[in-house]
Amino acid sequence: MRRLTWHNASQSDEQLREYLILALLRSRACVMLQDDLLNYLYITNLPHIWSVPAGNAPTDESIFGAGIGRQLGEAKTMVLQTGQAVKLEVMADGGQIFEIHIETIAGVKDTSQILTTIVDITESSRREQALKDLLLEVSHRSKNLLAVIQSLATQSARYSGSLDQFIAEFQGRIFSLSNSQDLVTEADWFGVRLFDLARSQMLLFGARRAVSISTTGENPLLTPNAALYVGLGLHELIAATFADAGLEGAGDISLTCKTVIHHGRACLSINWNAGRAADKGADEPATASDDELHRSAFSALLLETVLPQSLSGSATFSVFFGGIAYSLIFPKTDYNVRREVREDMVWA
Q1: Intervals of CATH 3.30.450.20 along the chain
Q2: Where is the Signal transduction histidine kinase HWE region domain (predicted)?
Q3: What is the Cα–Cα distance from 196 to 255, expressed in whole angstroms?
């Protein structure tokens, strides 16, 4: 039997026993002692979800119920036969989780007794499971992010007219991803507001031009996955806006968002208009350098294919002389948008 690590010889066994009983009560650990016939000798600190029946001598099944009681009875019989301690984890009806240690100790007249200790580990089990879930989520998101970066590198190289253009544009897109990831992390991986995402992406371009974003309509809370792709799309739109010489002095950028019913489903409709994109007469093509044409091709691929497909939606992208227009529609599923108070909807 394990003894005390150390004690003063002036302390009597009776005094030590009183101290240990007090500490046991405060520890909330349940201690149960049975003889070699599994008759209960004492029970202390029994968790409140169980109780000792009045009138009759307690048994495992009368205390813990048929399921757990039978499991404990079989384990105790095995411990008596083998002399080897056993540790179990059981879940009670209320969802609480308990760790149970069963071992033999020496009784009177060379008999064996069964000592059982029960500890509530519900909170520690939940924390452990939450940590496992978080690690799996981080692993999953890291793999997704690496796949996005690999795709960006490949497509940026394919659509770049020169090495310098590739380096500049690829770095910009990586900064965009990093920026969106920072917002997601600051929000404890819950979500990012669309307009916050847009303003954050605009800040990456500094004060290169006196252009600001005017935001109207709903400001949905995008999931981390949606924020990553929408942020990348916003970066591409801002870069395309600044690259268009016809937008010089053309005014602010308009970003609107609303809920619509599209093909019988509740969807988000996001619209980006820069310069004279809304002017139906301003549709003459803009002259562009080779680098601008390469970027326009990549932008069209990202904005019309990659971004909408990642959200199970659809999109259109138009470049005019002095104007850019983009429209994105995607379903308001839990995969894309965090649930909030229901908004008014219109048919589209």
Answers
A1: 13-120
A2: 137-219
A3: 12
Other CB atoms within a 10 A radius of the CB of residue 308 amount to 19
**Using H for helix, E for strand and C for coil, what is the string for 79-111?**
HHHHCCCEEEEEECCCCCEEEEEEEEEECHHHC
In order, the DSSP letters of 19-33 are: HHHHHHHHHT-EEEE
- Is pLDDT of 347 > 70? no
Residue pLDDT, tens place only, 285-335:
444 444 444 457 788 889 999 999 999 999 999 887 778 899 999 999 999
Q: How far apart are CA 236 and CA 239, in angstroms?
A: 5
What are the φ and ψ backbone dihedral angles of 276, each rounded to 5 degrees?
A: -100, 30
DSSP output for 282-343: --PPPP--HHHHHHHHHHHHIIIIIHHHHTT-EEEEEEETTEEEEEEEEE--TTTB---SPP
| Cβ(184)–Cβ(192) below 8 Å | yes
Question: Residue 170's pLDDT is what?
Answer: 86
- pLDDT value, residue 280: 43
Q: Which two tokens stand for residue 5?
A: 């690590």
In which residue are the tokens 């690690």 written? 135
Q: Which two tokens stand for residue 283?
A: 């549709």
Q: In the Cβ-directed half-sphere of 316, how many Cα atoms lie within 13 Å?
A: 7
Kind plus residue range of the DSSP H or E element containing 126:
helix 122-158
Contact 199, 229 (CB under 8 A): no
Query: Strand 314-320 vs strand 253-262: parallel, antiparallel, or unpaired?
Result: unpaired
235 touches 176 (CB < 8 A): yes
Contact (Cβ atoms closer than 8 angstroms) between residue 250 and residue 338:
no
Q: Point out which residues pair with 272 in neighbouring strands.
A: 255, 326
pTM to 2 decimal places: 0.62
Q: Average pLDDT, stretch 132-137?
A: 84
What DSSP designation does 56 have? S
Where do you find CATH 3.30.565.10 in the chain?
164-347
CATH number of 13-120: 3.30.450.20
